[in-house]
């Protein structure tokens, strides 16, 4: 580890209720999955340290409530966020529509230079109704990165947080080596991450060395 100052990034998860925002954070921070998480009330902050190259990055991850009654609170959570993960459930078309609305809202009212990642969650389920190509086209048109994940199996989850942290670092640090790292990473993992498993990217999270448990 170098003696560079620690980097501190606020990021926010947004999306309809039940799409799996809390489950993604739970998977990242504890490497576990719970079949019956309670809906989030308001918002919760989870701190996760990850290492990117020579830098240690502290992610302050704000997990928001998707229920409509909390919508008016959400600007409190996305204000000041350098990155946002917009989640939909691949088995629920309404949640996809809601995700695209969130992106427009963020672009209008969020931080101007915030990096946004679109995530289709629950790919372990077979009844997919939102095609990846639809989401990918939307992502391309709006200059976003698109990933698919399963909080249940862990597939793709670490990649989402890693790439977002990289994108924010790229914005903050004008460092050619970092830019090369991210280009290489994205070339190998963006969208084609479907066949990767959780262990293909070592986030070097402090807690990632815990045993993989599949139930809370
Ligand atoms: N099969 C499957 N179920 C999932 C996945 N992610 C979450 N779930 C389930 O979906 C339900 C809702 O997950 P949450 O993580 O609480 O959803 P949320 O987006 O945080 O919901 P709010 O807090 O109400 O906004 C829970 O029963 C989870 O177990 C996944 O990847 N696959
Ligand atoms: Mg939640």
UniProtKB/TrEMBL annotation:
| Keywords carried by this UniProt record | Nucleotide-binding
Q: Which Pfam families match?
A: Ras
The record ties this protein, via SMART domains, to: RAB, RAN, RAS, RHO
Q: Which NCBIfam families match?
A: small_GTP
Question: What's the protein called, per UniProt?
Answer: Ras and ef-hand domain-containing protein
- The scientific name of the source species is Anaeramoeba flamelloides
């Amino acid at each position: 580890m170098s003696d560079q100052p620690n980097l501190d990034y606020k990021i926010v998860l947004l999306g309809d209720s039940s799409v799996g925002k809390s489950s993604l954070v739970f998977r990242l921070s504890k490497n576990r999955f719970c079949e019956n998480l309670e809906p989030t009330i308001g918002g919760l902050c989870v701190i996760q340290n990850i290492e990117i190259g020579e830098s240690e990055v502290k992610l302050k991850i704000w997990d928001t409530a998707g229920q409509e009654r909390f919508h008016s609170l959400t600007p409190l959570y996305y204000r000041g966020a350098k990155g946002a993960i917009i989640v939909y459930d691949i088995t629920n078309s309404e949640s996809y529509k809601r995700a695209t609305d969130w992106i427009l809202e963020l672009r209008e009212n969020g931080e101007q230079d915030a990096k946004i990642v679109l995530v289709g969650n629950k790919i372990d389920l077979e009844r997919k109704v939102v095609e990846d190509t639809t989401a990918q086209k939307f992502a391309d048109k709006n200059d976003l990165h698109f990933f698919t994940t399963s909080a249940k199996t862990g597939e793709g989850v670490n990649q989402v947080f890693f790439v977002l942290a990289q994108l924010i670092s790229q914005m903050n640090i004008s460092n050619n080596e970092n830019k090369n790292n991210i280009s290489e990473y994205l070339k190998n993992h963006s969208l084609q991450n479907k066949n990767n498993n959780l262990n293909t990217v070592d986030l070097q999270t402090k807690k990632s060395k815990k045993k993989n448990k599949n139930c809370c």
